[in-house]
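User: Show me sequence and structure for the first protein, then do the same for the second.

Assistant: Starting with the first protein.
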Amino acid sequence: MLLDALGRARIRFDMFDLATSVDEARRAQKLGNIYHRGQDLAWNGREVLRELLDRHGGIKVTPEQRTALVNIFGTIMWGELAAWRISAQLADALVPLEAKMAATSQAHDEARHFYVMHDYLEALGEVPRTMDRPARRLLELVLGTNSLAEKLIGMQLMVETTALTIFQSVRDTGVEPVLGDLLRYFEKDEARHVGLGVQTLPGLIRRMGRVEGLRFFVFQMRVLGWSIAGLRTLAPHLRALGIDPRTIMVLGRSKQVMAYNQLWDQLGRVENVGVRDFVMRVLGGVEETMFPRGPEPQGLREQFAAFATGFSTALDDNLVPVSLDPNEEPRPVKVRSN
């Protein structure tokens, strides 16, 4: 049996007795490498932040930029706490040794991200005491599910890729050099976390029946909905830093498609094209309604027209070259086809 039920407090003595295919053994080796790579690349958050503050002579931003950074990275900080808890849940629930090790490595990374981002915000001048409702609902959704597959798809392939997108976009502005250099450390860690989902999910997906598969699909739609709502909430703060929220949407969708393509490579097949195309069209409609190319649609008629436009054009090749690792060159990414 690949997984244990979440919340069952017992020691599993059969982790070495699990039958594995050649593909599963290969994925297990990659998962083990994620853990050891994490150990090799672990960084001291206090020392790194102190050195960056000294190198750049502290944090120098305008009051408007400070407010924007506090709001965006306050959400990120509390998100790191949720990710710490989620990865600890995964480390406890996953049975295979290598997957458990990789999740444990992520928990260690997320703990470091949380305290370092807290210390950065403290140096910036304000540590938010809460987060906006959409981001909170998104993270509570992933925290609260008892399905390992849902927890992995929500955290590793959806939340992590969204975080990577925000990190890259803020870093590319050069608005705050201390944060820009700090986020490179975060991005390297987060890229490994995506690998945990890519290597672990195939075995879980293969074992799904139709009902479980439908629940899995609905869960992804709920996560996407709250993600888009959260981005909408952050839009004014992103614009204050010179970042177009629509660009975030396209960049984030490109990173998610790249992560999903890696997942389907591991599965040895492609997803249901009809379902995938419908989802892409719905996302395109929502994107055009909430982050339009032109003026903001007013009233239901204009909003419906914007949705229809996005729905009809969503399958156009509007993805951008991306990388999940800041050390790699961006590569073109395309939606899979049969």
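Switching to the second protein now.
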Amino acid sequence: MADGANTTEKKTTSFFKGVKAEFKKIIWPDKNTLFKETVAVLSSTVVLGAVIALLDMGIQAVLNLIL
């Protein structure tokens, strides 16, 4: 049983070493890029939300006329 526990410990250690190595490869954005991308995401979310709301109201109006 000791070998199984030792193997699991080695796998866990190896996994976290791999995670640490991958985190070193990440290129984190600077503040300016992060701000621009955040604004782009928020503005596109608001625009798409408005479009969906308008479509919903239009479909609801058509259904109210039919029913």
